Each structure stands twice: as C-alpha cells, then as structure tokens.
Amino acid sequence: MPADRSVAVRRIASVRAAGSITAQARAGRPYRVRSLAAKLVLAPTVLVMLVCFYGSALWTVYISMTRSFLLPTYIFAGGAQYQRLFHTPRWQVAYGNMFLFGALDIAGTLFLGALLAVLLDRRVHFEGVFRTIMLYPLSISFIVTGLTWQWVLSPTIGFQHFVHGLGWTDFVFDWITRPDRAIYTLVFAGIWHQSGLIMAIMLAGLRGVDREIWRAIRVEGIPAWRAYISIILPMLRPLMVTCIVLIAIAVVKSYDLVVAMTNGGPGFSSDLPGKFVVDFEFERANIGQASAAATVMLGSVLAIVAPYLYFELARKNR
Amino acid sequence: MRRASREARIGRIGLYLLLIWTCLFFSIPLLVVIATSLKTSDEVRTFSIFSLPTAPGFAAWVKAWYSACTGLNCGGVHVGFWNSVRILIPSVIISVFAGSVTGYALSHWRVTGANIIMLFLLLGAFIPYQVILYPLVKMFSTIGIYSSLSCIIAVHVLFGLPMMSLLFRNFYAGLPEELVKAARIDGAGFWRIFVWVMLPMSVNILIVATILQTTGVWNDYLLGLIFAGRDNMPMTVQLNAISTTSTGVIEYNVNTAAALLTALPPLLIYFFSGRYFVRGITAGAVKG
Amino acid sequence: MSAVSIRELSKSFGPLRVLRDIDLPVEAGEFTVLLGPSGCGKSTLLNAIAGLEDIDSGTVEIGGIDVTHHEPSKRGIAMVFQSYALYPTMSVRGNLSFGLRVKSTPRREVEQRIAWASRMLQIDELLDRKPSQLSGGQRQRVAIGRALVQQAKVFLFDEPLSNLDAKLRTEMRVELKRLHRELGTTIIYVTHDQIEAMTLATRIAVMHAGRIEQYAAPDALYEAPATLFVAGFVGSPAMNFMPGRLVSGAVEIGATQVPLNGYRFRSTAAPGQNVILGIRPEHVTLAGEDHQEPAIDADTLFMEPMGADTLGWFQCGEHRIAARLSPQVARRISGSVRLNFVMDQVSLFDPLSEARL
User: Fold this and answer.
1) Tell me, what's the ipTM?
2) C105/A contact by beta carbon, under 8 A
3) Least C-beta-crowded within 10 Å: which of A117, B268, C168, C325?
4) Residue of A nearest to C132 (CA)
5) Which residues of chain B have pLDDT under 50?
6) Cis peptide before B29 (omega within 30 of 0)
7) C residues 127-156 near A, CB within 8 Å?
8) pLDDT at B272 (0 to 100)
C-alpha cells in the first residue's frame, strides 16, 4: 500500500464495515455457527493487528513522552518533546501547511468533483470518455503525479517557459520555486489526482436519487441548476461528508506527493507532517521528535475519524 | 418530440465546454509528459515541455529503461521494474488470500468478538503509516529480515490486511446466509464451504481486490523506500531518485520516459479494467 | 377544472409498442382511473399526459389547449407519485412552497395556499417536520398537498396508495374521494388495484398490452365487460368462463342448453357459433332438487369461507366454477350438485376476437 493513494479505498471499505456492524447489532444476532477453523483463521489477523498496528502505535505514543533522542529510551519526560516540537520552526511550517493545504485541497477537490458529477449527471454524450479522462489520474502514483506537476510548473521548462515562448516574456508563474507559494502548487496536484474519485462517488450518489424526485421537479417547473442546489445536493450531504473525511485523511497522511513535487522546499516551506516524521526518523535520527510529530498526526486523524464514525453509526442506528 | 428551447441549448453548449475544459486540465499533464519523452535531448534543452516533438522517437525510453542513472549507478529503470514485479506478485497473492479468508470468517461464522475484530481492522486502516514505521523497522530487524524482499512483502501484506479483509467481509456479508446453512446441512465445513460455495461466487470481488492491491503495491513509495533495502528498490523509489539526481544536465526526456514507464502498469490496468477499478473504489462509499 | 383529451397517442420503446393509438376523453371534473396489470402501459400513459415521457405520435389536450409539445410544468398539471418524491432535506412547508417560490409567487399567496392545503389535508401540525419524521400516511398527505398548492387544472396520481398498508389505504381512499368532491378537479389516477378503481372512479379505462380495452363507468364495466380480458381482470374472484355453442335463444354447454333470457347482443351472432359464456360467482346458484329448470352438473371441490359469504368451488367437466354462496347454504353442500346461472347477468364473448357479443 502506498502512503496516500489507496487511503480513499480503505476509508470507503471501512465506513461500510462500520455500517454493517451496527446494522447487525440492531437486527439481532443472525444464525451463525461456531467453528474452530474460523477462530484459527482469525487468530493471526488479531495478533498482527494488536502487535503491529496497536502495539506499535502505543509504543510511538509512549516514546513521544520520553527523553528519546537518537535511540528510544523509556525515561518519562511528560510533554517535553511536544513543547520542543511546537517550538521548532520547521514543524510550525509543516503543521500550518497541513491546514492550509488541507482546506484548499478539500474545498477544491469537493467543488470540482461535485461539479463534474453534476455535469455528467445531465446525460451527456461520450460520458464514458469524460469519465475515463477524469479518473485516470487516480491510478497513477503520487510520485509520478508529483514529478509531472513539478515539470509542468517549473518556471525554466514548464508553463512559464511555454508562455514566454509565445512572446509574452513578462509572464511570471514561479510559485513552485517561491517559499511563500510552493505549498499552493501541491493543491493543484492534489485536486488533479483526487477529484475524479469524488466525481465517481458523487455521480453514483446522483444516479441513486429516486427518479420520481426528478419527475416531481420537472412537473413543478424547477430549473435543473436550482434543483441541484436546493434539493439534490442537500440530499447527498452524508456522501459529501464522507468525501470530506476521505480527502482530509489523505491530506494528513500526505507524503509521496510532497516528496516528488517540492521535496518540502524551497527550504522547508512546503513541508508537511508526514514528511517531517519520516525525515526525523530516518535521516536526522531524532526518534523523540519524530514520535511526537507522528502522535500529532495520529491525533489529527482521530479528530477527523472519531466524530465521523460516531455520527455515521448514530445515523445508521436510527 | 419536444423542442429544446434556446436557453436549454446554450446551457448544453456551456456544459460541454466546461467538461472539455476540465478534461484538458486532467489530460494535459500526461500529454506533456508523453510529448517530452518522445523528444531528443537537444530539443528538450531548447524548447518548453509544452511544445510538440519535431522528430518523435523512443530513444529516451530506451535510455530510461536500460541506462538512466541514480547517482553513479546507471542501470536504468528496468532494475526497479523487475524489483517491483518481484515484490508485487507475492504481496498481492498473499494479501488477497488473507483478506478473503478473514472476510469470510468474519461474515458467516460466529466468532466471539467478531465486531471488535472488525472495529480493530477499521481503525487500523486509519492509522497513518508514519505512526508505526519505526516500531516495525525495529521488529523486522529483530527477526533479522529487515531490508529484504520478504520484509517488504510482509509489510505490504500487513498494511493491506485491514482494507482487504473489510472489502471481502462486506461482500460476503451481502451473500445470503441460507447458502451457508444449506451447505452445512449438506455436511460441508469451514474450508469446504469457502472453496466450493464462496470462492466461485467471488470472481468479481477477487478481481476488484486484486486490482486495488496491485495498483496500491505498485504505486507505493514510502514502504518500499524504508523496508525493501537497496537491492529490492521498487520502481517508484528508483524513479524519484533518478529525477532528483542533479549531476550534470537534467535529461527531462529520459526522466519523463522513466515516469511513464513507472505509471504504465497501473494505467494499463485502469484502461483495461476501468469498470472494476471504479467499482472497487466507489461501491462502498455509496452504501456507507 | 379542465377536460383532458388524448388522441391517437402511440409510444414505442424500440420494437416494443407500449402505447397503441390511445384515445381517451376525460371530461372536466371527472375522476378517470387507468387500471391494468403491471406492464400494460398505464404509467407510461400517465407520464405521457404529464409530459414526462416523449411520445411518438398523437396529441394531448388539456383544457382545450394542445400541450403535446409543452414542458410538464407548462401543462397546468400537478402530480402525486408512488414513492411520494418528497424533497427529503426540506420541511413539509418547504416541500409545499418550493415550486411556488421558484415561480416567484408572492409570499402572501404562498402562505395562503399552504394554509388552505394543509387545512384541507389536516397536516397543519406537521408543517415544520422533515419527511423522514412522518408516517407513510402523513407523507402521502404531504405529497397530495404539494399537488394541491399548485392549483392545477388536472391532477395526476401514479399509484399513490400502493405503499400504504391495507387499513391506511382504505382511509386514504375515502379521503381522496372527499377531496375530489370538494375540489371538483379533473383527476387521472393510475392503479392496479381494482377495488381502488371501482370505489374512486367516475370512469375506468382498463388497459392491456398498450391498449384501452374498455372505458366506462365502474358498474357498466363490471356488469357488461367489453372484452374477455376486462371480464377476467375486473372482479375477485374472477368471472367464470365456460365454452359453449350458440343455438337459437340459448347457449349449449356440454349437454345442457341454458336459455338466454333477453341477453342484449351487441353484434349479430349466428346460431351454431362457438362462444365463451362468462358468469360472475355471485350469479351462480344452487339449482333446486326438482330437475325442472336447466342446470349444470358439477362436483363439489372445496369451500372457502370468507366471512360474509363463502366461496364454493366446483368442478364441471374440465372447468372450475366459483360460486358465491351464503355460509348457511355452503355448509350443507357436498358431493355432486346442480348449478344454476342467473341468465340475465351472463356475458357472451367471441372466442376468436375476445370481444363481447
């Protein structure tokens, strides 16, 4: 699994699973038979989950509260690592970037994805062609995506160079090389990569809308654009929340994209927490700081997922 | 029979224009990369990457495949390609098998704490890799397989487990319980039901799972970087290394060709099995 | 209040002709029910009237205006759907008012119409609720209310009661009848439930395979079905059918000749012609013991007590005959019996054209 690409996939599968847990609990226990084989099959899964996922995560959280530096030590130090972390300029930038990149990426991806879904829902010709073009970025790795956008946005060979070649030599588009703008270029790539997915999810939702609702809308003479804004898209609100959660988690986990596109630069101006952790763990060998930063990532994901799952389960139990 | 009004016709034109514009946004980066990869080295130095190649040729592709350089090592991306293939095949087979069996056990058999196991899997899927990378490295070092082919395969199976299990569980939970009841009355047990009743009905979900896991493993960067070791560096890691090598003149035609070669396998899978690919990533969300 | 007139309307889905030359005149204030089994084209016809379905040929006139090429919203209609099609994110008030607000109806006017419609349907209390907080019956009322506030000339109902349970359905039937009487609007109503059709309609159009088989008042339809299909479809249990042969003044069934007491032939039928005799279960009686009148021998199969009366099933040759009997009579029956038909209530059909003779 790559760091980011299939985040979406897992989230979707997971959300559905969460739904069925409660659906099952509500419907009473279905008839099922005990089997030793089933237990034997699940035992390694449980072991692996407990040790590799939860045990490791707890270990990291604990290390973040110790005095660990080059190597892990188990001497408790309270919040000292966090205090230091949030006084580190590079982390301040990375952490702030997560929110900036996240807000713009969510807004842009959701807007473009929903817009494209609505356009395709209007029974257009060549829908298959449009869909194929919108979705193909999703199959490409973030590394290739990042490199591609790095080339396209590079002032020396990319878009700016191209416009200069057209004769408009004053044109400047050098965001990827500017410390105050580089983070915004990541948004282009993020939207390019993910909005196809949002389009596909939203389109499936739009196609699921009761046909009679559309008939009622026609009989009442409500213009299509008004119907989408006032009736249809509000009906898909839960789906949009799912989409937002999907993108938000992808943002927190982002690593490959920033590595390939800007490598966190210029300087560390486009750094993100995911890259900060990996760099501190494996290049700078500061396991204490890395663990603290990783714990902040974990907390961010939980802050997104926990309320979502809670409301999602509550909604399904109703 | 109803005639479209003038407004409606203008609306349609606007709709198609918007669609075509967005499709340009989606396709231009790929087209630019393709165009650049077909250029000669001289052309790349003088023109912007947006210009079309004057004498398109595959020289850059050949160079990328056989002799692109990572630092001083000029083996080309075919090394990474074969590494990726060696990682991919066992990872995908084991992941899909483990996921399907786990999903089956969780859906049609009464297991104490099945709901808790599912919650574990669910939350496990949300944990960022960065949180557990270091402990995993330590674990694998302790066992003595860190930085090896088996290590990266194990890591892919591990990280694929939650998603694969839940994918299969959701699918199997949707199959009628009567199937298992009937098979049990016929005297079949856990494995026999799985092999003779469940698997034959799972063709579609097996394809979906295989595609997801294949593109996932192929496109991975972080895990390959950390767990595969120098000798098994997957294609994505090699590609990034080639592209960031800054000695001498940057050969954009070779770099873009290498990027395309890396992107090609998942792209081909997508173009030839788009339906399954899309179904895999969207089916769940709609119901969820 | 407007008349609706449909002329020579045809519609095909590919090679499948779902509506064939439909002619349907609906007078102003009439309650016309389109009745038929699923797939007969009744919903397609309703959608064609609404303008939700394009048609191949023919015209639709509403209130004397040819609306064949008009948008649904420009036809002066309002529609109630099977699934109600309420806008789930809007309150009841929002559902009622949205269409009016889009047409920039003055706010006072909107308020008045909502007040009127909600009083009419007794949903005043529910105005601030969401559709998900309503029961099936309440949703149904809101759906009707949304049609009412449009103050349309014609109301179209597409199987509106089919999602309700039996008790509510009876209640809503009464309600619809009351609404029709109070509003006096033209209603076209699609259903596959013949009881709904019989109780509500001023005229029923029975549809089969894309055609209107008969368009008549409920009692006329029941008493003198125009085709074999209508005879078999309307009425529960279905009309009994027995093949026979026409002789002068009588029908010969097996060896028995039963006299046709003043049967009014629609077409001239020659003696010797094969016919199908149809008789409703309530017009089958037990013959007396005296062997005087012509009667048909039959064997008792079984009895189905239905409360108010009992359905007796008899085997007569290769045919099965149902008779509606009083429970007292039914209890005494067993073995072979002789059955009598109330002959002025029979229907005769041509076995080839399936039309009434």
Assistant:
1) 0.88
2) no
3) B268
4) A318
5) 1-3, 283-288
6) no
7) 146, 150
8) 87
